[in-house]
């Protein structure tokens, strides 16, 4: 299976963000991707005050990427967007996955919210405006089980254990807007750890660069194999990176180094 990670610099202009996302999906399709993944908050990454009215799953955002998937005949993981939430003050941070016909194949709401205060570096209280999801979600894509997650989820290995062991995922997807300060030291280590410990491919699409207000994202979108080898890493710019997932290699790694099968403790 050929996968693409689309690295974006979304800002406060929703229409412009979607136009760039569409052009990256076109590049991914031209490169022969079966599945293309966009980053967290592909719709909008700007000041809270300027956030366009949050939409339902079948709103314009969903329709836009359903059309893209159908027109490009490619599976599209539409990063995440601000889904209308349970009350006026809260959205969900939601991923949508569309099949080649543009049919909705999966919906995942970010479970772990980024409430972090690192003085002078990072100040973010995601729970002030986002309601967390509470369900791990996997989707069948081209005969493979793909486990869904979003950004800060990456720090919670129990989610990925569930996706790999309970759901049987062979591919783990991570749309992200990882901060520069934390990303420098943690992004690659965490992605490769999740790949190695769960013996899965990890496909991670990130935001890159400056976003209002005072937010800089790390980028370095990455595709990692189940051995922990980095198959593709994006340069520090908006663009598309592609890799082929050798699913036979996944079987070989799991057979030769059966750490998933050797687990001794149950997964809830
Ligand atoms: N932005 C996030 O949700 C996560 C992040 O930047 C981090 O975990 O660090």
UniProtKB/TrEMBL annotation:
Belongs to the carbon-nitrogen hydrolase superfamily. NIT1/NIT2 family. The keyword Nucleus does not apply. One of its GO terms (molecular function) is hydrolase activity, acting on carbon-nitrogen (but not peptide) bonds, in linear amides. Residues 1-247 form the CN hydrolase domain. It comes from the Bacteria. This is Hydrolase. Keywords: Hydrolase. InterPro entries: C-N_Hydrolase (IPR003010), C-N_Hydrolase_sf (IPR036526), Nit1/2_C-N_Hydrolase (IPR045254), UPF0012_CS (IPR001110). Pfam families: CN_hydrolase. The keyword Hydrolase applies.
